[in-house]
Amino acid sequence: MSWQGLLGQDQVVAGFRRALTRGRLATSYLFVGPEGVGKRAFALKLAQTLLCERNDPVEMSPCGDCPPCQQVLALTHPDIEIVSLPEDKKDIPIRLLIGDAQKGRRNKEGFCYNLSRKPSRGGRKIGIIDDADRLNEEGANCLLKTLEEPPPRSLLILLSNNASSQLPTIRSRCQSMRFQPLSQTHLRELIAKTDEIENPARAESLAGLEGAGLAESLLWAEDAFWEFRCELLNTLSQLPPDVDQLTHVVQSFVEQDKAPVERRKRMTLTFRLTAYFYRLLLRLAVSSETEIKDDSGPYLDDTLMRAVSMGRKSLPQDADCGVEALTRMIDRSLAAEQQTHQNANPTTVVGCWADDLNVCLLTSL
Asked: φ, ψ for residue 171 (rounded to 5)?
């Protein structure tokens, strides 16, 4: 089922439907889930629902045609405040939240100030913080007063990929709504509706990779990623991988994009692809198979199959040692993905991960 074109989040829809029916909508929400599963789109559709002039919010069916609905769609509604991470910043600047101190505007402008003002049209003020994972401690603390004493008729929504990135004081003052990873079917539906994908066939192949969303699929379809993918798999096929070469290949790919958010996407997909590669090797190590014969998973093409074949030849002769090493390498890659979501320094994450992959194999011999 879908709500307003949003797929795979039936539990979230049901939760808001109950809250609106009972008149118990909270003042602050934390939307948590993988990137590209519809958190931002859901927040905007909820805003349409609450501000629509024609339909009762309880119906959760905004008309889409009235002026408020159109303004929400165009991001011009005067009662909606949205803060996102600027492309050239690592953290959301404090001035966007509580005003610019250098200009004497502290607490006289910004997200929190605007949210506290009386609604100008819709009878409700709605604030959305995109990239809430990029709030530093000072920025998060700026929100505490708004969370503790929410303005009348206000709704605050924080969008997060990982709840652990938020301060406990933030989490405790928000109602968490968990967005689930998209199923393969739903991801393929979204890909089919997206016009800007360079290679839809490649994007669809990513649907077999655990945790993949639309954002990863868009990157996966780019020619630049496939060039990197070939380099990465060739490097990983040597066990243990050359630390300097692996670090160089990954950092060069990550640094092709200057925006911190886009760099994080590249790192996430790198670690997921690495974990998937080692899972294929582990599958061969614990079975009588000599090669991967089925076509499940993200694009088992000649490049990947050749890398798996070379990697299998590099495994320790002792089967137990090989299984132990691969298990550790999978776990270490997933840990690196988690560190990426927690906003750890990219250079440090990549360097330590490459070193640890080497150690995982050597300590198992």
From this structure: -60, -40
pLDDT at 240: 86
| pTM of this structure | 0.75
Side-chain half-sphere CA neighbours of 56 within 13 A: 6
Predicted confidence (pLDDT) per residue in 212-246, tens digit? 667 677 777 777 888 899 999 999 999 889 999 99
Please list the alpha-helical segments (H only) found in 164-242.
Answer: 168-171, 184-193, 200-205, 214-220, 223-236
In this structure, the strands spanning 125-129 and 80-83 are parallel
pLDDT for position 205: 62
CATH code matching the domain that covers 2-178, chosen among 3.40.50.2000, 3.40.50.300, 3.20.20.150, 3.30.70.1050: 3.40.50.300
3-state secondary structure of 62: coil
Burial 309-347 (b: 16+ CB within 10 A, else e): eebbeebbeeeebbbbbbbbbbebbbbbbebbbebeebe
Amino acid at 277: F
